[in-house]
Design brief:
By secondary structure, the chain is an alpha/beta fold. The protein is built from 27 helices and 16 strands. The strands form four sheets. The chain has a six-stranded parallel beta sheet with strand order 6-5-4-7-8-9, sandwiched between helices. A six-stranded parallel beta sheet has the order 13-12-11-14-15-16, with helices on both faces. The structure holds FE(4)-NI(1)-S(5) cluster and iron/sulfur cluster.
Length: 655
């Protein structure tokens, strides 16, 4: 009974809309918020990473009585192995997404996936040039074919040359560093196979060797996501500033409400496009029209490019159905709680799965295929219209909570905006502001929600603290979703929360871009897209490093994942560190069972790569630690620059 009471009092979110649905629900519907409480207490062996199930003699758990596994594996081996398998899971997910796009491009080039086209030829040109492809006298399709061929090679190739999407997107010093440490991957798929083999029972027991392989795997995560971002931009356009709204209030009772949930824009872009064409069908069914809205990263994709409103982020994905107003939830891959199906059974919502590798028993399944994309999108939207007919006229309870969001900040869009102040060296606008002390540095907010902490609370707190302290902020994934829902991703938030330095910085950009931005005035925190678009955030970091002419470990750019949850987040954090940047994580990952492995993450990583992890669950302390990490770097940068000027030498490379 006590558990029941706790569940009723369950308030594990600070999102007003989510909270009101949880509080008003009388239906007894079970959500992740309830299941989390029922799951307590959770196993401490798992939580600290010392449980091994790699062979059938297991599970082996490290205790005082048994300080090694049956095979003799130490805690450090078990923890390191589990960690790097988790990185492999994340890298596999991102590269699966990237490869799906490559295959679609190949089909398109064979005139099969007819609904897709080259939407952004300039991006194609930029990517091709970066890859060293000679584009003279070639038509767009020929160039794209060469880009796709190189992308496929990055997955598996015969040569030992570095992967193109790594070598051509990062600073040379980093390539040299990875080469020195022998972690330049030979190919994404090759590395996945290598890592699974290396972590098989009776293979590598050396934690340092294992962790280095884990970092190599993490670099593959970066490659997979960068390919995904580039190809998505080519097919669907590079994002530009766009303004819309976020949170449950974006649902409208008299519209056919469709949530797009998952990750890959191949499906969601098509649904948004076809929904626009099918307005009359919705009107014939008695609705005012069709409203598409996003959950998780596919939501970020269509927000960035099409201005589709944000419905919610990861943790509250089940709740929109409980308003009675959601007609369909269309999902593709990743971060889809199987629980959505059970919730939908209590309402009229159609949950539609679409991909061969992400089905849910009992859900509607419409097998999506690229060569019949528009037709499939129509079939799915018809399911939503049917559902609308069932609930037409019935009462719905949509919390009237929504906030204005300005998103769409690709690196290209930022470059364009900064270019109004300095056309020759756009990124110098940021480096100058940091050098002069107007800004204290740059922070990327990334990652998920995680029930181990209060939903959106840490995001909210840390963002406000950093804003007050003049930190330029960008965001991706569900962290961006959080900022959007909470009203932190718009121009009003600049006036409310930014310190004087940040405020004047944003004002001067607004002023210089008055005509270009129109009503899209710059927000407090810049949305750079989905989780695969952490590639964009890193491209920004690289652009700053190039502007300063220094290697990554010297730039004041920190990442923060206050509510990391998925294996993908583990992979991203790991490459961010390998790239030389500090990374705050607000939920301690499963590594504390080995002081050695934990020490590598917190300390040794810095000695070798210049980046390191900061574990801190308390948002106030996290903000202080992030600021300290930025200050250390800006301080060093100023000292080094001063010395270089004084003695007329080059800027010191060491960190
Ligand atoms: Ni990223 Fe985006 Fe969200 Fe986390 Fe999941 S949707 S890919 S993994 S939960 S941020
Ligand atoms: Fe136990 Fe070793 Fe098997 Fe792991 S690999 S389950 S530690 S015997």
């Amino acid at each position: 009974m006590k558990a029941e009471k706790e569940i009723k009092e369950n308030k594990r979110t600070v999102d007003e809309a989510a909270l009101s649905v949880l509080e008003q629900d009388q239906s007894g519907v079970e959500t992740a918020f309830d299941r989390y409480l029922r799951m307590q207490p959770q196993c401490n062996f798992g939580r600290t990473g010392v449980c091994c199930r790699i062979c059938l003699q297991g599970p082996c758990r490290i205790t005082k009585k048994a300080d090694k596994g049956i095979c003799g594996a130490h805690a450090y081996t078990i923890v390191a192995r589990n960690l790097i398998r988790s990185i492999t899971g994340g890298a596999s997910a991102h590269s699966d997404h990237g490869r799906h796009l490559v295959y679609t491009v190949l089909e398109m080039l064979e005139d099969k996936a007819l609904a897709y086209a080259i939407e952004d030829p300039q991006k194609l040109q930029r990517v091709a040039e970066r890859l060293g492809i000679n584009t003279d006298d070639k038509d767009e399709k020929e160039v794209l074919a060469e880009v796709a061929a190189l992308a496929l090679e990055d997955f598996i190739k015969a040569s030992t040359d570095p992967c193109k999407w790594l070598e051509t997107t990062i600073v040379k010093d980093r390539v040299d560093k990875f080469s020195e440490c022998n972690i330049l991957p030979r190919g994404v798929h090759t590395t996945i196979a290598e890592t699974m083999a290396q972590t098989h029972m009776g293979m590598d027991a050396d934690p340092v060797n294992l962790i280095f392989q884990g970092l190599k795997m993490a670099l593959c995560d970066y490659i997979g996501m960068h390919i995904a971002t580039d190809l998505s931009d080519i097919l669907f356009g590079t994002p530009k500033p766009v303004t819309t709204e976020a949170n449950f209030g974006v649902m409208e009772a008299d519209m056919v409400n469709i949530a797009l949930h998952g990750h890959n824009p191949l499906l969601s872009e098509m649904i948004v496009r076809v929904a626009r064409e099918m307005k009359d069908d919705a009107v014939a069914a008695g609705a005012r029209g069709i409203k598409c809205m996003g959950i998780c990263c596919t939501g970020n994709e269509v927000l960035m490019r099409q201005g589709v409103p944000v419905l919610t982020n990861f943790l509250s994905q089940e709740l929109p159905m409980m308003t009675g107003a959601l007609d369909a939830m269309v999902v593709d891959v990743q971060c889809i709680m199987p629980g959505v199906k059970a919730v939908s059974e209590c309402f009229h919502t159609r949950v539609v799965t679409t991909m061969p590798n992400a089905k849910i028993p009992g859900a509607h399944h419409v097998a999506f295929s690229e060569d019949r994309a528009a037709e499939k999108a129509k079939e799915i939207i018809n399911l939503a219209i049917e559902a609308f007919k069932e609930r037409k006229g019935l009462e719905v309870a949509i919390p009237q909570v929504k906030n204005k969001v300005t998103a769409g900040f690709s690196v290209e869009a930022l470059e364009d905006i900064l270019g109004e102040l300095n056309p020759d060296q756009p990124f110098k606008v940021i480096t100058d502001a940091i050098d002069s002390g107007q800004l204290r540095g740059v922070v990327l907010f990334a990652g998920c929600n995680n029930l181990r902490v209060l939903q959106d609370h840490s995001h909210n707190e840390i963002i406000r603290q950093l804003a007050k302290n003049d930190v330029l902020m960008v965001a991706t994934g569900c962290a961006a979703g959080s900022a959007a829902k909470m009203g932190l991703m718009n121009d009003d938030a600049v006036e409310l929360y930014a310190g004087e330095g940040l405020k004047s910085f944003i004002h001067s950009l607004n002023k210089a871009n008055e005509e270009k931005l129109e009503s899209n005035k710059l927000p407090l925190i810049f949305h750079m897209g989905s989780c695969v678009d952490n590639s964009r955030a890193f491209d920004l970091a690289t652009a700053l490093a190039k502007q300063w002419e220094i290697d990554m470990p010297k730039i004041p750019f920190v990442a923060s994942a206050p509510e990391a949850m998925s294996e993908k987040a583990v992979a991203i954090g790991s490459w961010w560190v390998a790239m030389g940047l500090p990374t705050h994580v607000g939920v301690v990952p499963e590594v504390t069972g080995s002081a050695l492995v934990n020490g590598i993450a917190l300390q040794v990583a810095e000695d070798v790569y210049g980046g390191y992890f900061i574990w801190e669950e308390d948002p106030q302390k996290a903000a202080e630690k992030i600021l300290a990490a930025l200050d250390e770097r800006t301080w060093k940068l100023r000292i080094h620059r001063g010395l270089a000027d004084k003695y007329e030498t080059e800027l010191s490379k060491s960190y």
